[in-house]
Amino acid sequence: MSPGPDLQDFIALSLTPPWRWRAAIDLFRSGVTPRDVLDRLLVQRDDVAPSLSANRLRVRAGAAIGRANAAGLAPITLSDRAYPSALAAIVDPPFVLWTRGPTDVLHRPAVAIVGSRAGSPYALAVAERLAADLASRGIVIVSGLARGVDSAAHRGALQGGGSTVAVLGSGADRVYPSEHAALAVQIQRTGVVASELAPGTPPLPHFFPLRNRIISGLARAVVVIEAGEKSGSLITARLALEQGRDVLAVPGNVLSGRNRGAHALLRDGARIVETADDVVDELGLTIRVGDGSRLAADRLPSAASRDPVLGCFSVGEVLDFDEIAERSGLRPARLLPRLLELELGGLVARAGGGRFVRS
User: Fold this and answer.
1) How far apart are CA 89 and CA 83, in angstroms?
2) Is residue 296 a contact partner of residue 346, using CB atoms and an 8 Å limit?
3) Which helix (H) or strand (E) holds 66?
4) pTM above threshold 0.85
5) What is the pLDDT of residues 104-149, one digit of tens each?
6) Model confidence over 286-300: pLDDT tens digits?
7) Separation between Cα atoms, residue 285 and residue 41, nearest integer Å
8) Where are the domains of the chain?
9) CATH class entry, domain 296-358
10) CA end-to-end span of the chain
């Protein structure tokens, strides 16, 4: 993958404080170039430290590119056609994804599985079995490579002969926890290890809530397995709802108190998950056993002429997610899955920056 001309500026933007990212994304989506976004974001700001000047950030970005090359990481910027369209559609997508592994996996239907780091044997067994069953149907499993449920989900996906994506709260060259280094190597053979953080970034506590929006943003649904009342998995579930994703939960033991967070989700209307069929049915997927990467592709061409999403596009017209939602009248929770189906069927293509064009 050859880096785009804006790579250094996108990386520099990712090195700015997180509270500035939303404003930068809004400027980029309005048509401002990444270089001008960076300059506008930092010019004439009283709270900007000297180390955050645009020039110094670009120097640090250049150093990050050097570390990535040495570590074998491939960067994907928000304007790249390789950037996953599901993630580009959220309100605050990462400027850059640093990746290891075959990145085509990022464009396939995905489900996130998250839960307790101190998962019970029941939770770990459920996560592993559910991930294996979904992966065997061609669904990519997304999680955070943490101890407990996350790592069980990754292992289950691999055992099911499928692919999985691990989103880190550190640089993609610094696997955390360290005992999962071998698992990360296994993942990147058929899946992806990814991070928005520049190579070399240590696993600091405040990075983990930030990475949760990427876990949910890459997926069409989030399944919560065993989460306490203050579990970080509930942050992922909340973000998923804000992003228009489905939230599902696995019921657990009511006596232990370890699953009160997941049970609260169920009381609030989350779908109960007992098997992979529950997830597939909730998402409305038509998966062919043995050909799981195809998503009802045989139905797409015949429906093209009456499809409300395809009808939004004029010939050659490029639209962003909000414009498609306004024209089609579809809610984000229904629009995003439909766009992914059309993309898999070859009827819609990504034009970069979270925009789409009819093929």
Assistant:
1) 11
2) no
3) helix 54-71
4) no
5) 999 999 999 998 888 888 889 999 999 999 999 999 999 999 999 9
6) 554 444 333 333 333
7) 42
8) 7-71, 103-287, 296-358
9) mainly alpha
10) 23
